Amino acid sequence: MVELTLTERYLRRIARLLSALVVLLLFVAAYCAYDAFPRISRDVRFRTRVFTKASELLAAKEYTRTVTYCERQLGRQQFHNDPWMYWYIGEAHYRMSNWKESVAAMERALELKPDFKQRIQPYLDVARRKIKEPENPNITSEHIP
């Protein structure tokens, strides 16, 4: 039988401890991932429900309720500074001809998500023109759905 030196024995012990530590870390990582999955899934389902409700209110032409609902959602941690909530608020105000409020909400949405520009710009153009010339009947929003 081969006699191991003291240094070799310590090195083997250290290697076994490191192996055990790696296994423990893998178990911890797996547990954290497993624990987080339902929470993430629940958050996604909740966000989807909120956006669906806002969209349904807007489609039902319940603009005041849309604004109230979205403003209440902005007070929640999950939706604080959410550009979609500002978009829904802006469009609801737009549909009610509240031009200044519409511009303010849509500009905030654009500030938070610059790639909304293509979606928001037609609304902003019409609303800004309506603010400048409120009595001009030639300003229409026919090109906006």
Quickly describe the structure.
By secondary structure, the chain is mostly helical. Helices cover 75% and strands 0% of the residues.
Question: How does this model look, in words?
Answer:
With 145 residues, this protein is mainly α. Helix content is 75%, strand content 0%. It has a single domain (6-132), classed as Tetratricopeptide repeat domain (Serine Threonine Protein Phosphatase 5, Tetratricopeptide repeat). It contains five helices and no strands.
Oligomerization category of the chains in this entry: single chain
Instruction: List the domain count as a whole number.
Output: 1
**CATH-defined topology:** Serine Threonine Protein Phosphatase 5, Tetratricopeptide repeat
Instruction: Please write the CATH class name.
Output: Mainly Alpha
Task: Kindly list the characteristics that best describe this protein.
145 residues, mainly alpha, Serine Threonine Protein Phosphatase 5, Tetratricopeptide repeat, 5 helices, 0% strand, rod-shaped
Fold topology:
Blueprint: H1 6-59, H2 63-74, H3 83-95, H4 99-112, H5 117-132
